[in-house]
Amino acid sequence: MLGWLTAWFSLGESLWLDELHTTWCVSGSFGEVQSRAAIGNQLPLYFWWQWGISQTFGTSEAVWRATSLVSWLGLVTVAGVVIWRWSRAIRCPELMLVLCLALVDRNQIFYATEARPYASMALAILAAWCALAGWLSPDKSSSSRSYGRAWLWWCAWLGLNALAFWLQPTAVLSWAAQFVYLIGRWINRVCISARDPSGSGHDASSNQTLATIAGAGVLLLVMWPARYVLEPVWTSRAAWSAFAADTSPINLVRQLPLIACVGPILVARVASWIWSRDGSAVEGHSNQPDPSNTSTSSQASQFRPCIPRLGVGWMWMCAWGIPLALVFLSTSTGLAALVHPRYLFACAMPLVVWSACSLADCTARPNVRVALVIAMFILLTIQQGTLNAWIHVRLPVAMRGEDWRGAIALISRKTATTHAQIEQLSPHSPIVWCASNLIEGAKSQPLESGSGLMASYLSLPLRTIYYLPSQTQIVPLLNDPRSWSKAMDAWETASAGSDRKLWLVVRSGAQAFARRLTLSGLQPVKVHDFGGVQVMELR
Prior knowledge:
Blueprint (H helix, E strand, L loop, with lengths): L1 H9 L6 H9 L7 H7 L5 H13 L3 H29 L10 H5 L1 H7 L5 H19 L7 H24 L4 H24 L6 H22 L3 H9 L13 H7 L6 H16 L36 H19 L8 H22 L3 H19 L2 H5 L12 H11 L1 H5 L10 E5 L17 H6 L14 E4 L7 H7 L11 E6 L2 H11 L6 E3 L3 E5 L2
Parallel strand pairs: 1-2, 1-3
Antiparallel strand pairs: 3-5, 4-5
C-alpha cells in the first residue's frame, strides 16, 4: 500500500531535467522527434510513442509519466505470474510475499513514475526472459504443432529483445546475460550427453543451438541501424564518467537496493547446508518445476527444469547477476561508466523472481520463508533510509528535487507587469539566462547565438512543458561559470534599458550555486531556492 501511495503522489511532482528532455523531444513536429532524441543520446522509439500520447491526451506530469507507470504495473504483473505459478506448483504460496519488496523499493517507485524509457525497457527485458524460457521448455512431442510453438517463442524472444534495445541501448547488458545463460545451458547438455549418449533430446538440442546462433545474427542486424546515434555517444563516453558512481562493493549495494534480498538468502543457504551435514537433511525439492516456465497448466508435473544439473534459479540468477557484473567491469576498467541505478533498474525484478526461487531451496518450512522475507524488508528499508519517511507519512518517498515548475512560475509572476506593456519582442523584453548543466554544455567555446537546435537543447527546461511568456528571451549558458559574464556582456545587457528584467536560472543545489557565483564574478542578490534549481534576479 505504501508503494502504491508513493507512486500516486509522485505523479504530480515537477518534472526534472531528464524528464524535461522527453518533453522537449516531442514538443515539435513528429519529424523533429528523431533529431531531438539523437542530440540527447537517445533512440527515437520511446519518444515517438510519447509524441502520440501528448497529441492525444495533452501535456501534464501525469500524462508524461503514464507510460512508465503502466509499464511498471505490467512488470510487476509478469513477475507476479511467474512467482505465482512457481509457488502454486510446489505449494508454497508464501513466496508471493517476495513481490512486496518491489512495491516499496525507492528505485522502483522512482523509475515507475519517470517520463523516461527505463520502466518500459525493464518490462520488455523481463518478458524476453519469459519468452526465452518458453522457447527452451523441453517438449518430447515431435509434432509440427510443438515445433510451431517453439518457433513462436523464438520470434517473441527476438522481438522483445529488439524492442528493449530500441527503447534504451543498455538492453545489450540483458542480451549478454541471455547468451551466457544459453552457452551455460549448452555446455550442461553436452556434459549430460557425454555421460548418457543414448539420451533423448539430441535433435532438439541441435535445433536450439542453431536457433541461438541465428538469433545472435538477427539481433546484430537489429542493432546495426542505431550505430549512427550510438557512435558519437560511444566516442564521447568519457564525458559521462562524472555521473557514474564508484565501483566499490558497498556502493554497488547502494545502487541496487534490492540486493538486500541476497544477504538473508545466502545466510539461509549456508544454514541449510550446515543443517544437512549434521544429518538432519532439509526436505528437498529435487523435482521442483522451473519457475521460468510460462505455460498455462496448473499441474506441477508440467514444470520441467531447463537446466537439470544447475538448479532452477540459474536462469534468473543470470538475468540479474550478469548485467550487474558487466556494469561493474565496464566502469572499473574504464570502458564505459555505467554504475548508475538507471542502468541497473532492469536487474531488480529478475532478482525478485530469483529470490522466490531461492527461498524454496533454502528451507521447506513456510514460517522460515516468511521470516526471511521480513528480514529482507527490514534490510531494504534501513538501507534506503525510507523507514522514517514512511513512519512520518512523508510522501512521495522518492523525490526528484528539481522544482522547475515553481521556478518558472516565479519568473512569470515577477515579469507579468512587464509583459503586459510589451506587444512584440523588443530590446526591453526580459532575458532569462539558463545554465542547465547538461553534458553538452561542458565545452569551452561560447555559443554563437541563442537560437538553433543546440541552444534550444541547452535551455530545454525553459522550453518544454513549463513555458515562459512568449516575449521572454531565453539564452543558454555553458556549464563553466567563468564564461557567464563574458556571455552576458556579448549580449550588451547593460544598455538594454532600466525596465528590463534579467534572470539567472541554474540547475544546481544552493551551496554549489554559491560557489559558482563566486567563480562567475556576478554579484549575488536574492536567490530563490527550488531544490536542485536556483533562480536569481540580476541587477
